[in-house]
Amino acid sequence: MAQPLLEVKDLKVHFETEDGLVQAVDGISYSVDRGQALGIVGESGSGKSVSSMTVMGLTRAGNAKISGSITFDGKDLLNANASEMRNVRGSEIAMIFQDPLSSLHPFYKIGDQLIEAHRSHNDVSKAKARDRAVEMLGLVGIPDPRRRIDGYPHEFSGGMRQRVMIAMALINDPKLLIADEPTTALDVTVQAQILTLIQKLQSELDTAVVMITHDLGVVAEVTEEIAVMYAGRIVEYGKVDTIFSAPEHPYTWGLLKSIPRLDTPRDQELVPIYGRPPSLINKPSGCSFHPRCPYVREAHKKVDPGLEPTGSADAGHKVACLLPGETRRSLWAALRAGETPDAAIEEVPIPETTLSPSAEGHTGEEVTGP
Amino acid sequence: MAAYIFRRLLWTVVLLLVITAVIFLIFYVLPSGDPAKLRAGRTPSPETIAAIREQLGLDRSLPAQYWDYIKNLVWHFDFGTSYTNNQSVKSLVFDRLPNTIFLVLGAAVIWFVSGVVIGIVSATRRGTLWDRVLMGGALIAISAPVYWLGLVSLYLFSDDIGVWHVFPGAGSYQDAHGFLAKAHTLILPWLVLAAAFAAIYARLLRSNLLETMSEDYIRTARSKGLSERRVVLRLGVRSAITPVVTVLGLDIGILMGGAILTETVFNIDGVGRLAFDAIQRGDLSTIQGTTLVLAFAVAMMSLLVDILYAFLDPRVRY
Amino acid sequence: MPRSVLRFVLAGALAVLAFAVVACGGDDNNGSSSSSSTTKATSSSDVGTDNTKAANVEGKKGGKITMLAGSDVDFLDPGHSYYTQGYMVVYPTQRTLYSFKPQDSVKPVPDLAASDPEISADKKTVTVKIRPGVKFSPPVNRAVTSKDVKYAFERFFSVNVGGQYPAFFSSIEGAPAEPTKGVKPISGIETPDDQTIVFHLKEAAGVPVAAALVMPVSAPVPEDYAKKFDAKNPSTYNTHVVATGPYMVKNDADGNTVGYKAGKSIDLVRNPNWDASTDYRPAYLDEVEMRTNASDANVASEQVLSGTHMLFDANPPANIIKKVATEIKDQYVQVPSGGYRYFPMTTTIKPFDNVNVRRAVLAGFDRNAARLARGGKFTADLPTHFLPPDFPGFEEAGGYDGPGFDFLSKKNEQGDPALAAEYMKKAGYPSGKYTGNEEFLMVSANVDPNKAQAEVAKAQFEKLGFKFRLRLVPQDAVYNDWCQVPEKKVAVCGGAGWFKDFVDPQSMLEPVFAGYTIPKSGLNNNMAQLRDPKVDAAMKKAALLDGPERLKAWGEIDKMITNDAPAVPFVWDKTTLLRSKDVNGVANGYTTTWDFSFTSLK
After folding, report:
1. Which residues of B touch A168 (CB under 8 A)?
2. pTM of the prediction?
């Protein structure tokens, strides 16, 4: 198997703050192949943005402690110096963000901002860079790009701004595009347009994409694989189909049940995930999802689960859950049939002490990579 | 834009008219300000004062007198005559205005540049020793009274009463001829006047810049792979400096009549001193004149700032 | 003293009096001081600070002096000037009929006049002979005649010139009762020949009118030249003034005083038409440059003390006065400001109608504390009576030792509670303290030092058991709205001052303490409302006297007033003047500032 484009191994990003150590990312591993798309899904505070910002080298601060490894195209990004990092940023890895208005400098024309992005990595004339900018604006679907290039960000609509951001991100033909909640601030119809655009460009330009979102529905359309993050960890990993058809983590179930889907029966209730995301300073003991898990047993509060293969048809499918595989599958079957978690508990016996392989060989320090 | 500027100019004229009216009224409401009494000498009888009032035209109705005043002001640019030394207020004011402009603009350049540099250094090295030393110094500069600072600087560095004879001392400005010679004598006053402002601007810019640096567009800029230097100087400072420029304009306007202490300590004939002396002597024509000039300066500077703002921030449109 | 006048006039407190002097409670920063001209005041013998010795030094001729002046002149026009800074220029540039040598600020000497004034027996005519050989400076260049003096008086009464002390000369026949529009002749001033001027008076006021001939108005003004300037309103003679004294403000061929830059500088140069043989002034210096904008006293003081060829005319800050008095012991001169500051007690308000209560207050009063509020011992002496040092009648009233009343003795600086209690017992308060319960009103300006001194005074009264409310009001309201308005029932004014205009004891005592000057309505200068028939009678008698008897009589009156204890006199101010080491600075006790006509370079 060829070397993946991006390989993140056991990445930990901790921040020392006055309140204590924030374990924003606590040992995650994933990889993205060239031209491939990965979705990272989780609530805010799950560490999904921090991990991708770390890939970009944008979390390097005096109070940040970063360990593990990030290998991009054969380069060790974690140990790259500032100027090496800068050469990667915007050139080989580009990024787009949630709020396209605040992400563009309000005082500069969008053309200038695009040209700046291009020229900072390419030794080209202003005119050439401008042509490139116009081309990119055309590519992302800005009408009349030759004129609009001299507009200021506030003169564009939200969707158009995000197109500008995408144009800026792709202006240097990056190998990887990290899209951090690219559609969250947009309204629904525009969301679809942007996603279609990303998808189209990904296939046309053969750019790998890491799509970060809290919305499983978004990744479903764009990516091939999904990593579900919770409290700084990846709790489930698998192909899109697997995650949607045979998810094995109660948190993933929660995510799936909390979004409206076309294929769910109309009378079926949406089930929110109760409780709030945990503090990253004082994480719950054992399985960090246990305070919100409807299927929790005492033993789950003591043992920290590791990410283990589920043994399903999807060879890459892994989950970090202490429930025995059989129990998980039975519970999902009940839920999938439209039952509420409470009803599912009635139906499926949950063993008190029998734990899944996630509990073994895992001390909470190591995570086995995919 | 042109329409806006025209509208603003019109407003400025209205504002100045209101100011003249207010000043004019104060002139008459103040019991000690009666020019007839000033002219009448020490122990005038009421008849004497009445006679003088008539001769000076002070017995006519207020609107009529105001009309005269405005007429002289607009047609002849005449601010009237100082009753305490029979001098034309116009010549008094315009004799001093260049000195004040020279003093204030020179100091403004110093404080703006140094304030911005210190602010940037401090913000980009937030929490370090550099930051602490600079901000601590700024706090001292802000707290130090200008008058005290002026005296200390003279006692230390002036070439007549200083410990080290480095810079020209108080009163040397009026003896100097030529731009460079005058600028040389202004080094100490510039530094003293600029000190507190530089400190305030440094703090202002530091906090603005810190706020700006956490903006999303800065993250974008970094993700584009721009050098940190470019991110800070081109993108961060550009946003952080805009409000500072607004303050700068108004500060310069206000100092056109407000650099009293610096002008006093360093014995520079400026508008502030003129106003201060006039207030002390109850010389209301001169107070009127200097107040008008000050009001005009502030109004023009605020207009200038607003126009400048439209250039600095493309979101602002008039 | 003119310098305070301006402020006072501005404040609008204008009292109509024959000898108006000024109730200057103001915050004028002039102090004054004491080693001095005629009197061997405090220290003495120290050449560095003894003004008489400095004045008697045969100076070196030539050189230029830079004078750092605390403020600008009011006017250069001798008919308009009425302010210390103005006087500083007027006297070296103009020859008034009479003027004062720096060695003697009590008796004026003939200046433009050839001899002492002749006052007729009925005191209704004053005749002055004018010295021949005095010439106007360029561009006038002609000899001065008596008509030039007459014109000076006539223009003084016009609104164009705006003479500021017409009351001194209102007894002249035909003197306008109100300012004239344009210069009008005055019938009572006659010039029988070019060297004689006669003042005919409506009443027997020859003595005070003759005494007032030292005022700047008596300097000649050439009508032929000045007419065109005086025709304007205000007159522009101020910037075209010509000189008769040893110096002149530098001017051009048309008479424009190009050496005068308002608020900046005044350049005094030698008057080429001045003939030394006609004048008592030595006029050593060639040139004086006055910097009239040295408004920061700290900096200017240091510049003068460490520099060369410089003088400073404003009171230095307290720390510098202390430094020159105790460390340098040189480079300064102190001159009495010619006035007294006092806390008047309203004698019509019980129990201050009781003389022993008032004496008790004086006896117990910590006057040193009040003096500290004004700068302390280096800036003022503690009075033992009212007429100030170096003033005519001062010695006759007891000099520095005073008339010898125990309640206002020289030794009692900080108040004597036992003595105060004794007087309270005499006044009918057996406990030695006041036992009434009413609250008395004291009014003071709301700014220091007046506020500080009033607070001291309040504490002193409270020591004796009085309850006081101190009302702080703006400076200009203290007198015209409160202390000078009897209906306001101010028991104690929180600080008043009375300063000389010209040196006559009558002007220092009559307006302030004569019962007959209290007006039926309007502003009252006799704030204590003292009506002592004996004092009043003595004043009426003394007013007509002349020569040494006059001084003796007014000295006695001062003693009588002091014995009546109508007020607590708490300072006799002094003005401190600084000079560079190489300057033999001579002060003039009359103008209370530097005298350029006697100052020289060492």
Report:
1. 220, 224
2. 0.79
